[in-house]
Design goal:
Layout lengths: L2 H29 L1 H9 L1 H8 L1 H15 L12 H20 L4 H21 L2 H18 L6 H35 L8 H19 L6 H13 L18 H30 L3 H14 L8 H17 L2 H5 L8
Helix pairs in contact: 1-13, 4-6, 5-6, 5-7, 5-12, 5-13, 6-7, 6-8, 7-12, 8-9, 9-10, 9-11, 11-12, 12-13
Membrane topology: Multi-pass membrane protein
Main location: membrane
Keywords: Ligase, Membrane, Transmembrane, Transmembrane helix
C-alpha cells in the first residue's frame, strides 16, 4: 500500500477510537441517567449551555472583523466542518432553553434561534444553511406547538428574512450563483468547480461500488477510479480528493465497505431515529437528522472534531431529552 493509502487509514483510526469510546459513554449515560440529569439541571451548567450560541457568535465576529476571514471557521480552518458540528451544539442549547418555559428562557430561545442561523449563514456552507434552517424552524414548531405565539413567531421569521435578505448580496449570492452555474453546465468528464467536482466524486464512488459491490481496499478503489480518469470517462479534477474522501458519507462507505458497510451506516441512522421517536426525544431526532443530512454531501466521520461533538451531543440528548421533558409542565409566563 502506498503512503496515501496508509494516510487515509491513519486519519480514520482516531475517529474509530472515538466511536468506540462513544459507545461506552452512551452505556454510562444510560446507567447513570438520573445522576447525570441532576448534573445538567445545575443552574450554572444549564446557564452556560443556554448562552453557548452567544459565545460562538462573538468568536464568529472575531473571525470576520478581526481576522478578516471570508467564512467563519472557529479555528478549524474548515468552514464546512464548523457549520456541521455547531449545528448539534445549537440544538442542545435550544433544548436547554425550552426545558422550562418562562419569559427569560423563551426570549433566549428565540435569540439563539436567530443567532444560530446567522452564524450558519456566515460559514457559507450551503447544505448547512438549508438543513439547519429547516430543522430549527421545525424544532421550534414542535417545542411550542401548544403555546405558539403568532406575534413572536412572525417577528422571528421577519428578522430571519431581513438578515437573509441584507446578507444575500455580500455573503452567499456568489455561492448560490456558483451552484446554479455548476449544476447547469455539469459534465462528468470536465472540471466542475466545488459543486461540480462533488457530483463527479459521487459518480466515481458509485461506479466503484458497482464494480465491487462487496467492498474493496482504499488502494483498489482509487486504482479503479484512476483508470476511469485515464480513459477520459471521469474528470481528472477529482484526483486530489481521492486521497481524502468522496464528500458523501454513504457513497464513501459503499465504495470501500460495500453493501454491508452501507447497510450498517443506514442502521446507525435508523437506530438513533427509532430511539428518538420511541422515547419522544426531539433533541436526539434533530441531531440525528443533522448527522444524516450533512452526510449526504460530506463525510462527517472523517472529521475528528465533528464526530467528537456529535457523540457528546447525542450523549446529552440521551440524558436530558425524552418523555419526561416532553411531559414537563411550563412555568407561569410571568415568572
Amino acid at each position: 500500500m502506498n503512503d496515501d493509502g496508509l494516510s487515509i487509514y491513519k486519519n480514520y483510526s482516531p475517529t474509530a477510537s472515538r466511536i468506540i469510546l462513544g459507545a461506552f459513554i452512551f452505556c454510562v449515560c444510560i446507567l447513570l441517567k438520573n445522576e447525570l440529569k441532576c448534573f445538567f439541571s445545575n443552574k450554572y451548567i444549564s446557564s452556560v449551555i443556554k448562552v453557548l450560541p452567544l459565545y460562538i457568535l462573538l468568536y464568529a465576529l472575531y473571525d470576520i472583523f478581526v481576522l478578516h476571514k471570508d467564512r467563519v471557521e472557529l479555528d478549524t480552518n474548515r468552514a464546512t466542518v464548523t457549520a456541521y458540528f455547531i449545528s448539534a451544539i445549537f440544538f442542545v442549547s435550544l433544548h436547554f432553553c425550552s426545558r422550562v418555559k418562562n419569559k427569560l428562557n423563551i426570549s433566549l430561545f428565540f435569540t439563539n434561534l436567530i443567532v444560530s442561523n446567522a452564524i450558519i449563514i456566515l460559514t457559507q456552507t450551503r447544505a448547512a444553511i438549508a438543513i439547519y434552517l429547516l430543522l430549527s424552524v421545525f424544532y421550534t414548531a414542535i417545542v411550542f406547538r401548544k403555546s405558539l405565539n403568532i406575534k413572536k413567531v412572525s417577528m422571528v421569521v421577519v428578522l430571519l428574512l431581513i438578515f437573509a435578505g441584507t446578507s444575500y448580496e455580500f455573503l452567499y449570492k456568489s455561492r448560490i450563483n456558483e451552484a446554479i452555474t455548476e449544476t447547469q453546465g455539469y459534465d462528468v468528464t470536465k472540471p466542475g468547480g466545488s459543486l461540480g467536482d462533488r457530483y463527479t466524486m459521487w459518480y466515481a464512488g458509485l461506479s466503484a461500488f458497482k464494480h465491487a459491490p462487496m467492498g474493496e481496499s482504499f488502494q483498489a478503489r482509487n486504482d479503479f477510479i484512476s483508470e476511469k480518469i485515464a480513459a477520459g470517462a471521469i474528470s481528472d479534477s477529482i484526483t486530489v480528493y481521492l486521497t481524502i474522501h468522496l464528500h458523501s458519507e454513504l457513497i464513501e462507505v459503499l465504495s470501500l465497505q460495500g453493501v454491508i458497510g452501507g447497510v450498517l451506516l443506514v442502521l446507525i441512522y435508523l437506530s438513533l431515529l427509532y430511539a428518538g421517536i420511541r422515547n419522544k426525544n426531539v433533541l436526539l431526532i434533530m441531531i440525528t437528522l443533522c448527522l444524516a443530512g450533512y452526510g449526504l454531501t460530506d463525510v462527517l466521520f472523517f472529521s475528528r472534531e465533528s464526530i467528537t461533538v456529535y457523540l457528546l451531543c447525542i450523549a446529552v440528548a440521551l440524558v436530558t431529552g425524552g418523555k419526561e421533558d416532553t411531559a414537563e409542565q411550563p412555568l407561569p409566563i410571568d415568572r
